[in-house]
Amino acid sequence: MNAPHKKGQTWDIHGGIHPPENKTQSLGKPIMQAAVPAQLILPLSQSIGAPAEPCVEPGEHVLKGQLIAQAAGFVSVPLHAPSSGRVTAIEDRPIAHSSGMSAPCIVIDTDGEDRWGERTPIADYTAVERTELINHIRNAGIAGMGGAGFPTAVKLNPPADKPITTLIINATECEPYITADHALILERAGDILQGVDVLTHLLQPARILIGLEDNKPDAAAALRDSLRDRPYQVIEFPTKYPSGGEKQLIEILTGKQVPSGGLPADLGIVCQNIGTCYAIKRAVVDGEPLISRITTLTGNALKTLGNTEVLLGTTMQTLLEAHGWQPTPQSRLIMGGPMMGFTVHSANVPIVKTTNCLLAPTAEELPPPHLAQACIRCGMCAEACPASLLPQQLYWYSRAREYEQLEAHNIADCIECGACSYVCPSNIPLVQYYRASKAELRERAEEHIKAEHSRQRFEFRQERLEAAEREKEAKKAARKAAAAKRAAQKEASTPDGDNSAATAKQAEIEAAVARAKAKKVGIGQPAHSDDNEVGN
Amino acid sequence: MIGSAVTRNGVLLGAFAMLTTAIIAATQLGTKDRIAEQIRQAREKALLEIVPRDRHDNQMLDAQFAVNDQELLHVTDDRSGFIASDGGNMQAVILPVIAPDGYSGKIELLVGINVDGSLAGVRVVQHAETPGLGDKIELKKSDWILSFNGRSLNNPLPERWTVKKDKGEFDQFTGATITPRAVTKAVYNALLYFQKNRQKIEQLSVVGQTNGSDDNGE
Amino acid sequence: MMEFATEYPFWVAVIVLLSMCAIFGGLLGFASIKFKVEGNPIVDQINDILPQTQCGQCSYPGCKPYAEAIANGEAINKCPPGGEAGIQALADLLDMEPIPLDAEHGAEAVRTVAYIREDECIGCTKCIQACPVDAILGAAKLMHTVIADECTGCDLCVEPCPVDCIDMLPIEVDLQHWAWELPPSAEANLIVTDRNPRVSGEAA
Amino acid sequence: MEYFSLLIGAILVNNFVLVQFLGLCPFMGVSNKLETAIGMAAATIFVLTLSSVVSYLTFAYLLSPLGLEYLDIIAFIVVIAVVVQFTEMVVRKSSPLLHRVLGVFLPLITTNCAVLGVALLNINKQHNFIESLLFGFGAAVGFSLVLILFAAMRERLNVADVPQPFQGASIGMITAGLMSLAFMGFAGLV
Amino acid sequence: MASSASYADLTSNGLWKNNAALVQLLGLCPLLAVSGTVVNALGLGLATIFVLVCSNTAVSMIRNVVSDAVRLPAFVMIIASFTTCIKLLMQAYAYELYEILGIFIPLIVTNCAILGRADAFAAKNPVLPSMYDGFIMGLGFALVLVLLGAMRELVGTGALFGDMNLLFGAAAAQWKIEVFSDYPGFIVAIVPPGAFLFTGLLIAMKNIIDARLKEREEARKEKPVAGSKRVRVTGTIK
Amino acid sequence: MALLHVTSPHMSRAGDTGSVMRHVLLALIPGIVVMTALFGWGTIVNIIWACLLALGMEAMVMRLRKRPPMFYLRDCSALVTAVLLAVALPPYAPWWLVVVGIGFSILVAKHLYGGMGYNPFNPAMVGYVVLLISFPVEMTQWAAPAGSIPDQAPTLGPLSALAASFPFLSSTPVDAFTMATPLDVFKQNDSLMVDELFASSPQFGRFGGYGWEWVNIAFLLGGAYLLYKRIFTWHAPISMLAALALMALIFNDSGSSASGGSPAFHLFTGATMLGAFFIVTDPVSSAVSNIGRLYYGAGIGVLIYLIRSFGNYPDAVAFAVLLMNFAAPLIDHYTQPRTYGHKDHKSHNEDRGPK
Ligand SMILES: Cc1cc2nc3c(=O)[nH]c(=O)nc-3n(C[C@H](O)[C@H](O)[C@H](O)COP(=O)(O)O)c2cc1C
Ligand SMILES: Cc1cc2nc3c(=O)[nH]c(=O)nc-3n(C[C@H](O)[C@H](O)[C@H](O)COP(=O)(O)O)c2cc1C
Ligand SMILES: Cc1cc2nc3c(=O)[nH]c(=O)nc-3n(C[C@H](O)[C@H](O)[C@H](O)COP(=O)(O)O)c2cc1C
Ligand SMILES: Cc1cc2nc3c(=O)[nH]c(=O)nc-3n(C[C@H](O)[C@H](O)[C@H](O)CO)c2cc1C
Ligand code: SF4
Ligand code: SF4
Ligand code: SF4
Ligand code: SF4
Ligand code: FES
């Protein structure tokens, strides 16, 4: 493992599967340009980290590329208007999420002019301050386009004690159906490489590896053709899902494994998706923030398939209708690929920075799941698991809610790639089990912390009360002693006075109760109707 | 204070010890003789099955002699043989015999041989044969073992002293030949042993050199 | 000695037993002093499992006292907030069979948080006194408010409130806490979807 | 060789739990979790070997010479209780770590008939000192072996879709039965 | 408190609800080891009842005399001595059965130490209830033992009540009932695995009956009031 | 419009558990054909009768548990169990023997644990062992392989085979000619050298048992097919065969009468190959990880040899499998593979803090 490796050498990863690729449907045509829709819906949270904070008001007119929400912290990205128009609302709208829930969004009614605001290209990025360049990227709202959407600027700022030696560009696109990156490479390889140049300048890695599967020789060729004299290596490796996963790709290209719970930076590696590189080029060289992305539209339920450059905030409904989508009850709409993508509850949700694919299959193409049978421990899932887990054991323990065992079997290292479910002859929805269990584990950890906190507060309070009690006792004793001295003198009046004080307090409280009750009746009504309005 | 508690507890425990010992000792005293008798009867019962009471007048348990014979009886650990005599005349002898080649290990037998060299009876003392197969050698399960009664060295002829499957005289069990084969061989060997050692044993019985008194059965 | 034994079997028996008791008693007594240790860490382990809601439904004033009681042999099924999962964890710790929640102490319920309707609050401070974890803020005669993050949902503040202005609201799932549920077990599924196995897909 | 077969006999062929039926209560009771089963196993090995030896000594050098064989039960019970309690105290003091593993099980072992059983069997089979030692040790190892295997298996049973009436102790018993069935394969090994 | 337990409660507890063998899973060794035939089961069952009754009575009688420190040793010694007695008696009067039951007679000690609840019950209750409790616990155990013996004997050999002479004298030898004639014998029922399997089935049967009973009871009874035992953590509110 | 909401992945490989089982059934065919050729139609009668019983019992259980029987019958696992048990029974076994065996397999060993996938013990082997212990006579009456004895009558055809198993169906009861199996003979021999034994007994063939060599080779072929189809991995069967061969090699003292027999003898006699490829590989009751399966298989190999050579029972596959079934959960506990990004195999024990 430590031997100096040959140029272009690759390593094999454990497991993996070979699902039918279904990529040709959406390739072959040039990247289309989606129309500017009448309304854009922009969720404040489009990436990992804190949601952005709106910096426009409803009613305000915005220009294309104008900042509409600021980053709210270090791990957070800002948001820009994808087109010019008027902000009509900042409110909860359904978003693309497995839960089908709503989240705060900025809604813009476009004016059709698509008028650019100010663009801020950096003429010579090698001349500016490193932090300034990173800030520029952050301000352009760039989050990873390959997966979870992690704020790119954060990754470009590795801790000082972990110098980056290797930059890996992820052009794998291992999921079936998706061709967004592929198409992007074919058409804009030069731009992508310019983005890589920026990254290289920022990170100063010793090697730059561009990895992709050997099922896209034309893309590899396109990249190589555009390389010129750049010292980047374009490395092809055998096609196998999920070699595009960050951890898997790192093992394939370097032979090293990211330590469990660690980051690639621990190995001196940063991994960026090729779409992210393109976005960086646009931000730095052209001064355009991230307001659109390439999305693959595919699946037999569509009339025209292909890749399209679409403004963020366009609803899937608008986009897909333009491609002849006519949903029937029970049709599926998947954001992402067939392996890791999730179904949306309604098509009336906006495209976001991580929408690399919309898959609208027919029922014949991706039939509804079979009824699950019992696990027969055949071990095919373990053979397929790229993380070398024992999915069947995770499944058994998830069923039994044995969380200690799940932790012992490293459920946290599951990347939810779905390879296990894919091969399972009993058709068990394994990944769903893991997701549920992981969530439960997270919740338990939170609860445990909270319980610990409550315990401390409880004990603190008990102690305080006891201290107060002791003090009172001490005072009482002192008073008693004093009282004993003057025992003969004053006797009868004090208890009386005490009593009257108590009654007075009681009366006061009762009056307050009456007031409050009256108030309650009074305001109860309007509060209700308010509720109703919001409900509609 | 601690001291007094310890003394009190100590005395209490002591009292309990006395009390419980009293109960046990009383029971023990009450049953001692009967238990000894029961043990004796139990041991004698097997012997009496082979040589019934009406054929002898001595206490066979008191007429023991040590047997040690690797070759024929496969008995090496000083087991006892017993002599039945009537009016001082030896009537029969009961030999401990081991059949070493049972299906699952050794089969321990008692073989009773009349003075005339015929078999008085054979009983299985202990074995580990398969239940339902080899265990038919127990009298409880089948009376196959009785088929030896009255046989002797030449009845049947030596070459027929085996199971039918080996062209002999004795039945085997369905699906189990090994066990009966082993028992038959051991019984035959016991007869051989008796023939060889008859003199010695008879002497023992006359002199009354047997020793059985210090054996209390535990 | 031997003769004595045969002559007075009873007394020998008594002597033997007595001396055995004496020797062993002494040995244990010695050991109990010599090898004395203090403390009972099990209570902390039990307390760690209890949810620290401090609601008293277990009939002990707080979780710690209940933990102590369990360590002394109290049943493990009396904490409704801990629910089945808590009982299971206790059973695992103490290696007992888990038993169902004791209904006398209440049922397992969704987690809630107290919410004071502030415009009705008269500032009597009774809820502050009731709150076991000091999760209510406010001064006398001013309106009070619950620090939602500190509230354990014990509902002890509800009853003392003279104007009934405290509601226990279920904690709602937000986007961050939403998660897939465990799929219904294949077996359960089958009973419902006897005739049309295909449809179970939607249930998932 | 003879000692070897005594040992193998005690561990496998005449396994205390599955063939001789001794020590079943802890076998059913302390097998819900693998970790505890391992603790119990270690404690049992220690106590069983020790009490086998001690009770042998008591019998051979105290009861037997004085003709007090009939006091065996009571004497053994006392000896075992003391051995267990003493061990517990010593372990608790000398190694809190070990106590955490073994401690809670030690008192449980007193009510385990394997311990008394081993003492009585030593007498029945007229074992000498070494044989008593080996027999006690072998029996304990046999007990521990199946206890640990059983505990691991019960963790698996927890997740099985066992029909309602059979859940819990019932399926545990049936599993033990099938285990015992498998152990019959060792018959005749020594 | 336990002392107020009624005889009816004791009975239903000992025989069914808290049956030592089927519910508490105690005394399993003799239960499994000597339940090959009815006569063995009966012999050990009776011996167990005897020891339980005697020792519970004795423990209860002395309950006020002993201090906590020596309680357990004292109780164990009492039980051990009664066990020794029954062992000697069986040796004297049912020798063959004694031989068959082997070490499971002395082992009554360990079982009774737990079964008898000497510590839990007899030490806190007057003589009569303690005696009754001992009897019922023993009876509950013995009944399961005999039931199991009958099942195994029947399935294993096709007959019932064989060899009763071991316990009841020579006349009882005739009591044997051949239930199935020409039965090939089902050895698994007699050997150790059978003991486990049949006990498992017995427990399952009890579960089924319990579930039925519960269903019926539930139909009648309403739910207990929730939260009735709550305590105020924060003391009284002034 | 309500769209279908399901969890990912949205694709899955074609096929289900039933198809896995059907591959196994297919792979058993060569062995069954050879057995029929050698022993006559008794094997086929056994198989059919056992399958009927197994399906019937499974359907009955599902009824009782209020589950749809067809869904469960379709997974064919009951058929695999039935066929494997039937193949292990002596041909011409009486009908009730099959009833008891399947009863224990399907009802006790499988459905008391919840049915397919949950049983910790191999159902077919449980049935077999119960029968072997309870009815040793019936279980050791193996038909003589065709041609093993020069003037032997021809093996029984379908109808007489049926009559042999169901005597009440026919007015003239049929008896098959039986003889001890080679392992039986080998075990009981304690006077002849191994070579002499091979020469003198009709039970022996070139290197294994007469005829049994072919049975084993046929099952080996079936196993190779399954291996090729990736129904199971090589770990368990190969390590079992290797361990068995190794044990035989160690104890093989060039043919004295006390010899345990050569590796080839052990590999090609009795149920070795059937066991290695169809029984040891039963996924449900074996260890789960590949390393675990190595230990699991090796354990079975060693136990088979020990019990065959030193124990009471002539063939030991069933006992060895059950014993290792028993050990499988513990093996699993200690043979977790190293997860991606972890340092060692069982890091989980260390990095779990006190909780
Ligand atoms: C909670 C979290 C924290 C992260 N912190 C860092 C970080 O501090 N530095 C960094 O370079 N990457 C960080 N990452 C980025 C990951 O290494 C990874 O590149 C990113 O999650 C995208 O991976 P994916 O699309 O495969 O899920 C973090 C990711 C997550 C989810
Ligand atoms: C199973 C799996 C498959 C993935 N496949 C790809 C892929 O094919 N291409 C890609 O760029 N990212 C893929 N990702 C995301 C990468 O792990 C990683 O997040 C990304 O390359 C980081 O780059 P970014 O921060 O620029 O998005 C995948 C992630 C997972 C978990
Ligand atoms: C499990 C099992 C147990 C057996 N037990 C015995 C037995 O106890 N005694 C015996 O003679 N044969 C026993 N046999 C039978 C022998 O293996 C062998 O088949 C038989 O003795 C040969 O006799 P035959 O020539 O009558 O068939 C047993 C066989 C098996 C499979
Ligand atoms: C490769 C393979 C081997 C199998 N071997 C057995 C077997 O030995 N015994 C058996 O009862 N079932 C066997 N089955 C079927 C199935 O796994 C079995 O019925 C389950 O144990 C029932 O839960 C096998 C299945 C497969 C795929
Ligand atoms: S692939 Fe499916 S059936 Fe096979 S072991 Fe994994 S979860 Fe179980
Ligand atoms: S989803 Fe998790 S368990 Fe399944 S194959 Fe992927 S990493 Fe492994
Ligand atoms: S019932 Fe309430 S007070 Fe008692 S342990 Fe549970 S949470 Fe704590
Ligand atoms: S605010 Fe009310 S419900 Fe919340 S912890 Fe305090 S007393 Fe309990
Ligand atoms: S009776 Fe409980 S351990 Fe034996």
How is this structure best described in words?
The complex is a heterohexamer of chains A (536), B (218), C (204), D (190), E (238) and F (355). Chain B is built from two helices and five strands; from the N terminus they run H-E-E-E-E-E-H. Chain B has 218 residues and is α+β, with helices and mostly antiparallel strands. Chain B has two domains: 1-50; 55-215, no CATH class. A five-stranded antiparallel beta sheet of chain B has the order 1-2-3-4-5. Chain D has helices at residues 2-13, 24-29, 34-66, 72-94, 96-103, 105-110, 113-124, 129-157, 169-183. Chain E is mainly alpha-helical and 238 residues long. Chain E has one domain (7-212). In chain E, strands 1-2 form a two-stranded antiparallel sheet. In chain E, helix 4 (68-93) packs across helix 6. The mean pLDDT of chain E is 79. Chain F is mainly alpha-helical and 355 residues long. Chain F is built from 17 helices and no strands. Chain F has helices at 17-39, 42-64, 69-73, 77-88, 95-110, 123-134, 136-139, 158-165, 182-188, 194-200, 212-228, 235-251, 263-267, 272-279, 290-310, 317-334, 347-350. In chain F, helix 5 crosses helix 6. Chain F is globular. Chains A and F meet through strand 16, helix 10, helix 11 and helix 12 of A and helix 1 of F. The structure holds flavin mononucleotide (FMN) (3 copies), riboflavin, iron/sulfur cluster (SF4) (4 copies) and FE2/S2 (inorganic) cluster. One iron/sulfur cluster binds next to helix 4 of chain C. Residues 48, 144, 146-148, 150, 154-155, 158, 245-246, 263-265, 271 of chain A line the site of one flavin mononucleotide.
Shape of chain D: globular
Q: Helical stretch count of chain D?
A: 9
Cα Rg of chain E: 21 Å
Instruction: Give the helix/strand class of chain D.
Output: mainly alpha
Number of helical regions of chain E? 10
Number of strands of chain E: 2
**In sequence order, what are the helices and strands of chain D, one letter per element?**
HHHHHHHHH
Query: Ions, cofactors, ligands: which are bound?
Result: flavin mononucleotide, riboflavin, iron/sulfur cluster, FE2/S2 (inorganic) cluster
Structural class of chain E: mainly alpha
Share of residues in strands of chain E: under 5%
Task: Report how far the terminal alpha carbons of chain E are from each other.
Answer: 34 Å
